[in-house]
TrEMBL record:
Keywords of this entry: DNA damage, DNA repair, DNA replication, DNA-binding, DNA-directed DNA polymerase, Exonuclease, Hydrolase, Nuclease, Nucleotidyltransferase, Transferase
GO molecular function, a single term: 5'-3' exonuclease activity
Domain DNA-directed DNA polymerase family A palm stretches: 714-920
Catalytic activity: DNA(n) + a 2'-deoxyribonucleoside 5'-triphosphate = DNA(n+1) + diphosphate
SMART domains, sorted: 35EXOc, 53EXOc, HhH2, POLAc
Residue span(s) of domain 3'-5' exonuclease: 350-545
Protein name as catalogued: DNA polymerase I
EC number in record: 2.7.7.7
Gene: polA
Length: 956
């Protein structure tokens, strides 16, 4: 039986789930009818290896590893609780050597020895089976599959039915009336249609197909050049292997005919290897397999001895806390404390995979592992343009490989010619089933990039799933504490400094593309990435639970990967003609502003030069307030300096600010957007998922989140963002969400009442703090209230408010005092946030996410003050970020379920932008509003404003 997407989260139904939507537990094997006999045969080896590779290292107090024991016990106990039968048994393998090795010594010869930490657990797993009251069967010289075949034959002969719990393809030859398989991952039966879909033949012909196709996993030779599809065609035409070999002269393809004739004996040997022995002895009599309840005393003793407290509680056995004394504090799922991450394994040497047989062997090993580290190497940082150069995977710490696909001649191992490597399309065809296999967890770092690259790989692309992302795991645990790049995390958590990209490709003019890196260096670098990723997963996965960050990661951050991948691939349409007209207007305006600036300065100069501008302002015009840089000696002329001069009615400063704004908009958006248009006039931004300290997304290449909303120039740029013909752009914007979260967190009755009754929050604030009757609040009072409402969230000081309102610091301090006097809960909340940050190093969002505050303990008062302001703002901005993310992960599915064709294209902080068919505007708007307003339960209502139009500007 295969381990579910590992390691799994348990829902209220106690069914492991991971990597997608929570699925309710099911009873895959129907209840037994009166008078009917049913035997369930569990493939024990599948359970063992899935459990071992799925769970992090765990040890008992005596140092014995028990992660596989815990996983096996949990899975089997859950299976027993959900399925009914009259007879049940777990069937085990005993040793690597069987009767097959007598006539073919190389059978399974290349399979690695089991990990040393797993070997001592085999005996404990058999104890677990006995403690659960389940019969176990094993026999020296025979494989578990042979015993399963023999028991199935015998039980059906007695009039019963059999369910084989396994997804092992070798067992599919046993499917027939009365015998079916149960896929433990998909929780679906495997009957004749599923077998035919897998092999292209009925179950009774499976061994004939396997004899021809062979199996690199088990070293079954088969006939070179013949795969499953071809083998199925031949068997369907000729009936069986012997008839095919007797009629090779009729085969028209010369190479195929020659291969069959030259490898006939290998095919016959292969058939003997894959044919299960249904006449094998039965080591455990069938009558002993009758279902019986476990002995509570025996089971409780076993669980206590191994420290399995969560299973004691789940099975209702005694006091779960009274386990063996001195048991270490439990970690994931209340299992025994995990040992440190696998650090003993060396980082390399790694294997370079250059043949299809070697790749198939690694794929088989990956399937057996159940959890793999994975990474791609490409020729570009732009995922939508990058070509796949190679890929790497790790099946265990220290056990990793690199598969070159598009390398060119260069370096020590490669010489001047193209190196030996697997054809790209052939490799993708082999890898696609693995990368899309729901029973194998793919662990990546910054998975969104790799998923976008692989979505264009091979024939029709590869939809990698299920996944874990170590970058997002780290981000869910420690947003704001440090960066989340692989190199930094490897050093911090593994004590290892990875090979740098510069060290293998060079720098500057001497840099070469990764495709030209020598294979030995490429392998060391790329395989190490996969290895490090897998090791980081072993560190982070259990920590997510203990840090109470598992739900945030699994239900929000990880689900965002696929959402953002689709958004980035979709892009948004640009009206190139309108963009060109905007560029021309901006160019004209810049020329006009430059002329006016020169007139105000009294002479021409380079307006874009801060140095020359400083000389004009402070040397020639002798304006007050100038400060020179200690490093360069040049006058400072940043925006704050110019804003201060502009408030002093210096026309030159104001006009330079105007010039800079237009120049920035032109270079950052007009010019950049024109350069980034694809062949369909769409532009594709890159949403960075783990950069901000608050959980917000950021947009780069190009940045579409900083286009001014309220300026005329910003609106003009937004008019260039348009919908496809027959569609409109729809903007859905959370209204004052950070203020709503403030009212909720600080528990401010007046603000909560205002939001609940739909009042204008700024007018209400103005009325409260300025003591103005509601009907007498004018625009100026509302403006001041709005400034302080939003300023308070960002920890604005009296000096900051004074600058914003154009008033003296004393008056600003009076306004702030009046604000806190009216809403004392806000001051108390902010003081608590600062104290929490000083005490723990982090603050919490309303949903429990930890946001770490750098410099909160700094001795520098300026840095410490900035950290305190960040501590005040982080929960509100972070809470808003989590609300919109929750909406984003729900909306695509909700739209599909409603048969609506809208696509989500952009996220701009509190706003989502969709492309919607004109005929679906009303229905889409209603659904979007319903989802967005109900994703979080706060003490104030969430409100969403929805608009639509031909352009982004018109949608507001």
């Amino acid at each position: 039986m295969s381990w579910p997407r590992a390691p799994a989260t348990t829902t209220g139904t106690d069914r492991p789930v991971s990597g997608g939507e929570t699925t309710p537990a099911a009873d895959p094997v129907a209840p037994v009818a009166p008078g009917q006999k049913r035997l369930i045969l569990v493939d024990g080896s599948g359970y063992i290896f899935r459990a071992y590779h799925a769970l992090p290292p765990m040890t008992r107090p005596d140092g014995i590893h028990v992660n596989a024991v815990f996983g096996f016990t949990q899975m089997l106990s859950q299976f027993l609780a959900r399925n009914s039968a009259t007879h049940i048994a777990v069937v085990f393998d005993t040793a690597r050597t069987t009767f097959r090795n007598d006539f073919y010594p190389d059978y399974k010869a290349h399979r690695p020895e089991p990990p040393p930490e797993l070997v001592p657990q085999f005996a404990l797993i058999r104890e677990a089976t006995e403690a659960l009251g389940v019969c176990q069967a094993e026999l020296s010289g025979f494989e578990a599959d042979d015993l399963i075949a023999a028991y199935a034959k015998a039980f059906v002969a007695e009039g019963g039915t059999v369910a084989i719990v396994s997804s092992d393809k070798d067992l599919m030859q046993l499917v027939r009336p009365g015998v079916e398989m149960l896929d433990p991952i998909k929780q679906k039966p495997i009957r004749e249609p599923e077998v035919f879909e897998k092999f292209g033949v009925t179950p009774d012909k499976v061994v004939e197909v396997q004899a021809l196709a062979g199996d690199s996993t088990d070293n079954v030779p088969g006939v070179p050049g013949i795969g499953i599809k071809t083998a199925a065609q031949l068997i369907n035409e000729y009936g069986d292997l012997e008839n095919l070999l007797a009629n090779t002269a009729k085969i028209k393809q010369p190479k195929r005919r020659e291969a069959l004739e030259q490898n006939a004996e290998k095919a016959r040997i292969s058939r003997r290897l894959v044919m299960l022995d249904a006449d094998a002895p039965l080591p455990c009599p069938i009558q002993k397999m009758e279902v019986r309840p476990p002995s509570p005393a025996v089971l409780e003793k076993f669980l206590r001895e191994n420290g399995f407290r969560s299973l004691l509680a789940r099975l209702g056995l005694g006091d779960a806390s009274a386990v063996v004394r001195n048991t270490p504090r439990p970690a994931p799922a209340d299992a025994p404390e995990p040992t440190p991450p696998p650090g003993a394994a060396a980082f390399g040497p790694y294997e370079t995979v250059t043949t299809i047989d070697a790749l198939r062997s690694w794929i088989a090993e990956a399937r057996s592992a159940g959890v793999i580290g994975f990474d791609t190497e490409t020729d570009s940082l732009d995922a939508l343009k990058a070509q796949l150069v190679g890929l790497s995977m790790a099946v265990a710490p220290g056990r990793a490989c690199y598969v070159p696909l598009r390398h060119e001649g260069s370096g020590d191992l490669m010489g001047s010619g193209t190196p030996e490597q697997i054809d790209h399309d052939q490799a993708m065809a082999e890898l696609k089933p693995l990368l899309e296999d729901p029973s194998v967890l793919k662990v990546l770092h910054n998975a969104k990039y790799d998923l976008e690259v692989l979505s264009r790989a091979g024939n029709g692309g590869i939809a990698v799933a299920p996944i874990d992302d170590t970058m997002l795991m780290s981000y869910a645990l420690r947003a704001g504490a440090h960066g989340h790049g692989m190199d930094e995390l490897a050093l911090k958590h593994l004590g290892h400094t990875p090979i740098t990209f510069d060290s293998v490709t060079g720098t500057g003019r001497n840099r070469i593309s990764f495709a030209r890196v020598a294979l030995d260096k490429a392998t060391a670098y790329a395989a190490e990435d996969a290895d490090v990723t897998l090791r980081l997963w072993h560190v982070f996965k259990p920590e997510l639970r203990t840090a109470r960050a598992l739900t945030l990661y699994e239900q929000v951050e990880r689900r965002m990967v696929a959402v953002l991948r689709d958004m980035e691939i979709a892009g948004i349409r640009i009206d190139a003609g309108e963009l060109a007209r905007i560029g021309e207007d901006f160019t004209g305006k810049l020329a006009l502003y430059e002329k006016q600036i020169h007139e105000l300065a009294g002479r021409p100069f380079n307006v874009g030069s801060p140095k020359q501008l400083g000389e004009i302002l402070f040397d020639e015009m002798k304006l007050p307030g100038g400060k020179r840089s200690k490093l360069t000696g040049a006058w400072g002329t940043d925006a704050s300096v110019l804003e201060e001069l502009a408030q002093q009615q210096i026309p030159l400063a104001r006009r330079v600010l105007d010039w800079r704004q237009i120049q920035k908009l032109k270079s950052t958006y007009v010019d950049a957007l024109a350069q980034r248009l694809d062949g369909n006039s769409r532009v594709h931004t890159d949403f960075a998922m783990a950069v901000t300290s608050t959980g917000r997304l950021s947009s780069t290449e190009p940045n579409l989140q900083n286009i001014p909303v309220r300026t005329e120039e910003g609106q003009r740029i937004r008019r260039a963002f348009v919908a496809d013909p027959g569609h409109v752009l729809m903007a859905a914007d959370y209204s004052q969400i950070e203020l709503r979260i403030l009212a909720h967190v600080a528990d401010v009755p007046a603000l909560k009442e205002a939001f609940a009754t739909g009042q204008d929050i700024h007018s209400r604030t103005a009325s409260d703090i300025f003591r103005i009757p509601p009907d007498k609040v004018d625009k100026e009072a509302r403006r001041r209230a709005k400034t302080i409402n939003f300023g308070i969230i960002y920890g604005m000081s009296a000096f900051g408010l004074a600058a914003r309102l154009g008033i003296g610091p004393g008056e600003a301090r009076g306004i702030i005092d009046a604000y806190f006097a009216q809403y004392p809960g806000i001051r108390n909340c902010m003081e608590k946030l600062k104290e929490d940050a000083r005490t723990t190093g982090y603050v919490l969002t309303p949903f429990g996410r930890k946001l770490w505050i750098a410099d909160i303990a700094s001795k520098d008062p300026v840095r410490r003050g900035g950290a305190e302001r960040a501590a005040i703002n982080a929960p509100f901005q972070g809470g808003a970020a989590e609300v919109i993310k929750r909406a984003m992960v729900r909306l695509p599915r909700a739209l599909r379920d409603a048969n609506l064709s809208a696509r989500m294209l952009l996220q701009v902080h509190d706003e989502l932008v969709f492309e919607v068919p004109e005929a679906e505007v009303e229905a889409t708007a209603a659904l979007v509003r319903q989802i967005m307003e109900n994703v979080a339960a706060l003490s104030v209502p969430l409100a969403v404003e929805v608009g639509h139009g031909a352009s982004w500007a018109e949608a507001h």
